[in-house]
Amino acid sequence: MKKPIILITGGRAYDRHFHGLSLTLNKTYTAAVAAAGGIPLLALDPESYDEYAAMADGLVLSGSQGFSPDPKLNTGTEHTDRNVDDQKLITAFRKAGKPIMGICLGMQQLNVSFGGDLQINFKYDSGIEHMMTKHTIEVAEGSILHNLFGTGFYINSRHNLKLGKLADELVITATSDNGTVAEAIEHKDLPIIGFQWHPERMRGDFPEPPEGPDMTPLFEHFIGMVKDNMAK
Q1: Which H or E run includes 42?
Q2: What span, in angstroms and rounded, lies between the C-alpha atoms of 10 and 12?
Q3: Do the beta carbons of residue 140 and residue 146 sit within 8 Å?
């Protein structure tokens, strides 16, 4: 079987050398996909949603690169001005029946796509910081995470939003150590998974945080989901 092509979303940035707009994606995403046996492909064209879904075998919705309120999501979201619309990509890949992994903002976008919503700046209510820190999570038995890593472990944390109302088709498979934040989701029927932290940063030479497990097996599991889907 050929290596699966994995489409990854990026964000806009400012090119300080040529003084103009550019596109950006942290190399940890492409390294994680490649190490797991996939071929990373950056989503560049804002008009080719169906074509991307036909070309690629799976989709990784990356995390955000900054913050701006987004009225489409009612409560606001962390993101840069994406060069492609995450919601349109999700729709195209759902229609094509292909696996999706959402990371940080990507997980939030999945919840919105299936009818859920988000809560902004929840730390002011909980009094617990989730931006640029680390904490442990509690993992549901029988979930993908439980099968790979056990009942709990340390993760990084880089978000000011959390899932509010959970979409009916999704199941929470991990929560923050105090139980207030959904940290992982799985779709009840489709090959769709999401993680509130950044697993792509928990591997390689400088894992963040060093106390957490190597997340390479998580990306290998996703590539396995993609290959199983390709074999149908």
Answers
A1: strand 39-42
A2: 7
A3: yes
Which class would CATH give 5-230? alpha beta
Domain ranges of the chain: 5-230
Angle of helix 105-113 relative to helix 86-96, nearest 10 degrees? 60
Give residue 81's pLDDT. 56
DSSP 73-136: GSS-B-----SS-HHHHHHHHHHHT--EEEETHHHHHHHHHTT--EEESTHHHH----EEEEEE
Q: What's the distance, Cα to Cα, between the start and end of the chain in Å?
A: 12
Q: How many helices (H) and strands (E) does the chain have?
A: 7, 13
Which one-letter amino acid corresponds to residue 219?
Answer: F
Joined tokens for residue 158: 């880089």
CB 102 within 8 A of CB 195: yes
pLDDT band at 12 (very low <50, low <70, confident <90, very high): confident
Pick from 11, 157, 163, 160: which is nearest to 73 by CA? Answer: 163
Q: Which two tokens stand for residue 199?
A: 């697993």
Is 112's pLDDT higher than 50?
Answer: yes
Query: pLDDT tens for residues 120-177?
Result: 887 777 767 787 899 999 999 999 999 999 999 999 998 888 999 999 999 999 999 8
Rounded to 5°, the CA angle 179-173-112 comes to: 90
